[in-house]
Inverse folding.
């Protein structure tokens, strides 16, 4: 199995510094980054 990784510089919103209510980090909608993550089972959500 090939080990892969991605990196993201966290924004102020990602870290909670802005006081927003975001729940987690923003994942960019770039095809290469999205392909890194497994697909979610849509029947569960």
């Amino acid at each position: 199995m090939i080990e892969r990784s991605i990196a993201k510089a966290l924004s102020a919103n990602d870290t909670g510094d802005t006081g927003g209510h975001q729940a987690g980090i923003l994942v960019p909608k770039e095809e290469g980054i999205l392909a890194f993550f497994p697909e979610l089972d849509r029947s569960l959500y």
Remarks:
- The two ends are 29 Å apart (CA to CA).
- The mean pLDDT is 85.
